[in-house]
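Quick question, first post here. What does this chain look like in 3D?
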Amino acid sequence: MTISMTGFAAGRGQAVGFSWAWDLRSVNGKGLDLRLRVPDWIDGLEAGLRAALQKALGRGNVSLSLRLSRDEGAQAGPRLNTEVLDVLLRLAGEVTARATAADLLLTPLTAGDLMAMRGVIETSGTDEDTAPLAAAILADLPALIEAFNVSRAAEGQALNAVIAAQLGGISDLVAAAKSAAEARRPKAREALGEALARVGRNVDGLDETRLAQELALMAVKADITEEIDRLTAHVAAARALLADQAPVGRKFDFLMQEFLREANTLLSKSQDIDLTRIGLDLKTVIDQMREQVQNVE
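> Answer (accepted):
Ran it through. Tokens below.
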């Protein structure tokens, strides 16, 4: 099953007085490049998100964006803790009563004195405990990743069909190249014979053994049997990769280089108009397939 590096997913969540919306998207890349846009005041959030994405994804330029807002009616900013204040006021009253009974005069407490006491004023925002919020957001991430992988699998299915069709075209062209090579054999043999005759008429003391060796070398250099066999093997290997369950993008990248190498060698040996045309068509399809393979994870 081919997996594409192109994908998109969006999601929403809500917990502990906050709501969030986020999206996850990616395009092709040589490795895994993560770019996160998340609030930096939530302790441990970015590190947790990055670790989860690295575990779930193999390749691609991946961007994660998280937009966070506090729910309407949720406490925001400084808040008076009335329970703590009532306890402090009761204690202050007892202290004042005991001081009066001992004929001691105390300076009256001000509102500022009370507000400065620990626990009377609670703050939210960057000073609050963000651990519950971070945990809630991280718990919502697997659903987003699952939707994202479904999107990439759907893209991969379409990509699989395109690459399979291109492989079919390459296979047909390889077969055509083999037929063209067979068809040119009589012409090549005749051309070599004529060349031999011309050399024999114009050169005295010709070393027939050396000439036979040179002609045999020319025939070997013009033979594309090895290139045809390798291209056929590459087609079979590519089809096996399309059926593989594991990420195969890097293997496909290497295989496309081998496809191109054999096509170039075939062209350099063609010495025939029909075979050259087939070789050029072959290179075109290979280049088109190479572009598609760049999206395979």
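Residues 131-202 form the longest helix (72 residues).
The radius of gyration is 38 Å.
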